[in-house]
């Protein structure tokens, strides 16, 4: 089976202004570098102008300002990258899954599985769990007791969801992600750690994507909450009682410590760390590898990255970080001396 | 089924001084914010005094200094947080599991499974493995050949334990954790890496908890050792031949490189990195996101966190980190000049 | 079964110069500290000279310069560590697996499984996948549709490989690793994130090792490529469209952002972060916990590590990082004043 659209069909479905040959047939999306005549690419960064000139693409999606940047058949859009995403979705629809339950799956008799659900081999679903219509549960997934998964979910193989979690519609969860494990709650008592039962849940809104091997812990007492439209990359750790605001996107390897509250439409860079019990306003951007150690009340972009250099230069300079305070004192002393010297000078 | 205790019963079981109505019935623990009249909360941080005043809790656990901070029925304890943990354990006992082996589990005929063990669906247990009494092996877990798991273990679904590991009593291992994978041992030989067989084991003491997707590598030659009472959060990497001292707690995303030896009662913050072959004394605290690049011989608290700021401020300041050495030289030159100027002044 | 070699047999097979008793029988490798008389150790770091003197080993592998550093039976080699790796491989051969498919495995009828393949319990292999000769697929692994795995692969339990990936010969993949999950591709459109279908593949060369819980995302449009001989430790995140050059080794918890191109023979330290769309030359070394925010065109060693200190010292010094620019301005002002003062002095 192969999917093909005329450029005219694409513009008719998705809008935008079509310039050039509307009859060109498009079967796939591709990069400017590798596109062939039956493929469509996009151009949104002027730094790639030479690639645009050299592309073998049959058509290109461009922004308003670049409407004349090429003579290729093209669609002009306010947001060429989003337009490209939509074209790609058109050309690469999600695979369809036949409803049904593989005979090797182990489903508790009290679980409620919608007839329009597809459950793959080796899946385990516990008592009282509920899987809603059009959801696809990949091979070897585990759904704990009483957990509710909304419609149109797509769990890739080996996703683990503990008991009592509540998940909205359209969840995409990649392999190895773990939702609802115990938060890290311990109390020291006479030289030994006592475990604090983690009795909260994980509550996830609609249209959330969770990357491979990402972990979202259940709440200690109240719930951990992931709001609608949140996008989490791989290997992110979300601790107990965190709340992540709607439409926030977090890049790989980030860690969000317990009870942090992150606003809506935030962008958290890869490997960033948000300490516990902090609050981040809406529209906050945190650079990669940056630790946020205080609440951020103002939208904006924040960073704390040590600039790298050749190791010998780094060694020479970094050693002084342990003496910055002394360095400042020496500057202050020099300023006092100079004030004095200038005074005597007068 | 619902569990309920009179406040008097709780104090009788767990100690502490009871003040106020001893007959109040408690069914659950909760935060000060969300507690209802049949719930007990705790107060140990004076910053939450307003929450204490406004709480709907039926009872509160408080410290000695706060015995009169509320008129609610209360239990006064030296360690209110630990007391709270114990009350929560009372009200939220671990679920009980019926001993038995799910028919879909694949257990080697030479494995020794105590009759009081519960083994869930899709589990695989290899030859010579031993699972001791009252252990619960969750769905889809894997236990390698000759691995010994002590009594009262709780493996959540999808835990993987390689061959020949030795685990004490009371292990809690969360989903996706991997115990005993090969350490990262390679030697360069004429332009190619040769693998060094990892023939050590992982040896884990009693009462250890291992978070979701945490990895503990087997030793290269000798063993990797996790002592009694160690608590590991999610997504921690413990490399080969590490030793973690008893009752040390490590927060999420930390990484411990090969052959590091960490003392007892240490606290390692989230995302911290301990380089290889280092030693940390007992009672060392390492801040989140801090790299430890030298052994620490003295107990105490250590940090290396770059303070974050607005990106434009960060950019303006961070650029100078590559010139700190030059900056110091300029200060020294100024000091020399000033000494000279002052000299001439005399 | 126990394996034993005379020292003479080892030298005959692996080369090197044998000094001392060639008849000593060796059954295992061990550290200098723990070796017994039937074990061989190695000495390549002069810092361990005292351990060499005290070792109970029956034989030792040493470098040319240390040919006389001990009187024990010894093999002198140009590269004692690599020699040791080879001896260990001799004494610890990979376990052999009987070809065959466990009855609990679920293999699509259109998958091509070489007769010399071993497939363990609970494995799932999808339509059109191909597993080549002498490969071992551990318990609970998942191989997606049309994925091709070359000969002599070793997948430990619970490895997940998505559809359409291509893997060379000799792959070692540890438990929890996920190959081919979607890259993090999203476009903002009118307040909502749209998913960009990830239609590239993961293409892996020969002799690659992938650590536990490491994730390698499939390409967005073109492929993610891991070249021959690359060695990846645990919990590494490799984003979409990354290319990792041959024989590069990356330590645990590192993260490589999208479209980064890493050269051959690079060494990337634990927890390091390489930002997206960067290029690293061949033979680049990046220190642990270092963020690389610009391309590196020259081989060499690079670092950006904040030196740790006692927390109170850290606090005193780190506060000035937000004022480095001001500090430099004060130095400049002092220099101008001094120029003036010296001028007046003349």
What does this structure look like?
3 copies of one chain form a homotrimer. With 346 residues, chain A is α/β, with parallel strands linked by helices. The first copy, chain A, has 3 domains: 5-91, Udp-n-acetylmuramoylalanyl-d-glutamate--2,6- Diaminopimelate Ligase, Chain: A, domain 1 (3-Layer(aba) Sandwich); 100-302, Hexapeptide repeat proteins (UDP N-Acetylglucosamine Acyltransferase, domain 1); 311-345. The first copy, chain A, contains 5 helices and 40 strands. In chain A, strands 8-11-14-17-20-25-28-31-34-37-39 form an 11-stranded parallel β-sheet, with no helix packed on it. Chain A has a 10-stranded parallel β-sheet with strand order 9-12-15-18-21-26-29-32-35-38, with no helix packed on it. Chain A has a 9-stranded parallel β-sheet with strand order 10-13-16-19-24-27-30-33-36, with no helix packed on it. In chain A, helix 2 (49-54) links the parallel strand 5 and strand 6 (59-63). The longest helix of chain A has 22 residues, at 324-345. Chain A is flat and about 90 Å long. Chains in contact: A-B, A-C, B-C. Chains A and B meet through strand 22, strand 23, strand 38, strand 39 and helix 4 of A and strand 4, helix 3, strand 40, helix 4 and helix 5 of B. Strand 39 of chain B pairs antiparallel with strand 40 of chain C.
Please supply descriptive tags for the structure shown above.
homotrimer, 346 residues, alpha/beta, Udp-n-acetylmuramoylalanyl-d-glutamate--2,6- Diaminopimelate Ligase, Chain: A, domain 1, UDP N-Acetylglucosamine Acyltransferase, domain 1, 3 domains, 11-stranded parallel beta sheet, 10-stranded parallel beta sheet, 40 strands, 16% helix, 29% strand, flat
């Amino acid at each position: 089976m192969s999917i093909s659209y005329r450029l005219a069909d694409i513009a008719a479905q998705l809008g935008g202004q079509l310039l050039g040959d509307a009859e060109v047939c498009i079967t796939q999306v591709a990069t400017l570098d590798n596109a062939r005549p039956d493929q469509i690419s996009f151009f949104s960064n002027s730094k790639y102008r030479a690639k645009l000139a050299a592309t073998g693409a049959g058509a290109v999606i461009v922004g308003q300002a670049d409407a004349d940047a090429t003579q290729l058949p093209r669609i002009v859009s306010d947001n060429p990258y989003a337009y490209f995403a939509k074209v790609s979705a058109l050309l690469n629809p999600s695979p369809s899954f036949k409803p049904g339950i593989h005979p090797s799956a182990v489903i508790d008799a009290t679980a409620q599985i919608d007839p329009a659900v597809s459950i793959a081999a080796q899946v385990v679903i516990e008592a009282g769990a509920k899987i809603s219509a059009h959801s696809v549960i990949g091979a070897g997934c585990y759904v704990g007791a009483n957990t509710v998964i909304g419609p149109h979910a797509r769990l890739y193989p080996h996703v683990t969801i503990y008991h009592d979690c509540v998940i909205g519609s359209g969840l995409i969860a990649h392999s190895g992600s773990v939702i609802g494990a115990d938060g890290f709650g311990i109390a020291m008592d006479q030289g030994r750690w006592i475990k604090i039962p983690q009795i909260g849940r994980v509550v996830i809104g609609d249209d959330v994507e969770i990357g491979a091997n990402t972990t979202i812990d259940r709440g200690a007492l109240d719930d951990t909450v992931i709001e609608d439209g949140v996008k989490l990359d791989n290997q992110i750790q979300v601790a107990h009682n965190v709340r992540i605001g709607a439409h926030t996107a977090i890049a790989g390897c980030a860690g969000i410590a317990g009870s942090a509250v992150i606003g809506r439409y935030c962008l958290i860079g890869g490997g960033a760390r948000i300490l516990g019990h902090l609050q981040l306003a809406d529209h906050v951007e945190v650079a990669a590898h940056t630790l946020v150690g205080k609440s951020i009340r103002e939208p904006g972009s924040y960073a704390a990255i040590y600039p790298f250099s050749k190791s010998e230069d780094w060694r020479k300079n970094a050693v002084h970080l342990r003496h910055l305070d002394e360095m400042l004192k020496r500057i202050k002393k020099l300023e006092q001396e100079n004030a004095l010297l200038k005074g005597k000078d007068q």
